[in-house]
């Protein structure tokens, strides 16, 4: 074998390190979850993150609204708000708002 090819010990050592790191990274969330189960901070994040994510998505959608895309964006946003106020279901309002935006985009752009 050429000298540039690493030996079996080197390869097995590298594989062992990769195995340990992979197992540790997969176990870390479960260990952290058990430690934070009764945390007030995690409870706060659980209550506020959905609204925060929706605000970020709205800002991302409306950041580059131009002359030809303001109407579809407005229709999608209004539909999302209306369905959410009516049904209080984030998944349903997201799907309906996205659908309205796509339909409006097909007709007005």
UniProtKB/TrEMBL annotation:
Cite the InterPro entries for this sequence: Brnchd-chn_aa_trnsp_AzlD
Cell cycle: is it a keyword of this entry? no
Transmembrane segments annotated in the record for this chain: 12-32, 44-62, 68-86, 91-108
Record's superkingdom?
A: Bacteria
- Please provide the record's keywords in A-Z order: Membrane, Transmembrane, Transmembrane helix
The protein's name is Branched-chain amino acid export protein small subunit
